[in-house]
Amino acid sequence: MKKIVVVVFAIGLNFSGFSQDLSSILEQETANKTTIVTATFKGPRLLNGHSIETRKKGIFEFLISHRFGRINSGAYNLFGLDQSNIRFGFEYALFDNLTVAFGRSSFEKTYDGYLKYRLIKQKTGKNSFPFSVTFFGSATEKTLKDYAPNNKPTFTNRLTYTSQFLIAIKINSNLSFQFSPTYIHFNTVRKIEDSNDIFSLGFGGRMKISKRISINGEYYYNLDPFKSINSQNSLGLGIDIETGGHVFQLIVTNSRAMIEKGFITETTGNFFKGDIHFGFNVSRAF
């Protein structure tokens, strides 16, 4: 009996030593390997604004966005559901890191085009890097005929440009944050007291609450808002629901527009006084 105990003890020591060796080997292999962090966000939109995400080469995505009227407009307007802005968007990934797109919004009858380029990817392991960076650049043309017949603006006068650096970090599989410094240039402004150049700082995040559902938040702070309107900083809260090839986003926000120059600089609703718009984004990748 004594011999059996000794043999079992020896086997145990050998097994323990083997496990430690295997663990060391795995740790060393992991340390020598570089892993790119993926799925920082569910899709290319955080809420109103863009996330760092770009699509794989060859993916075509169709996006429909709605923002209804203000909930506090009362029962006569069915709490905003009688009023709706809509945007159709088409996005195509030329490469894994480069997406180009075109869209049209009913808000001010605006056409927009943009590109997103993934500059830096967050990595872990041997050549780790702590965050991801994506550049976003867009141009929009407002075609709403809200001018006097003898004072028609030129095509150039109706253009606005947006540039953003989207900087994000995925803390773990459930939690991600994004910082979005933004510059917007208007070729023409409403009043002389308004600046043609507006700088804004965007903040946002996402927290998963289940395998397919996450809650999101987004806020833009304008450093030099328009003076001629009661400009408010844009705030949005929402839920992402992933269903196969779809990402469905339910949103409450004080912004009506769904393009950067609109929701960042031309929001006039006060979220905390009830000027809230319900809306959604639906995307389908092909």
From TrEMBL:
All residue ranges annotated as the DUF5777 domain in the record: 41-286
Superkingdom of the organism of origin: Bacteria
Name by which UniProt lists this protein: DUF5777 domain-containing protein
Organism of this sequence: Lutibacter profundi
Lineage: Bacteria, Pseudomonadati, Bacteroidota, Flavobacteriia, Flavobacteriales
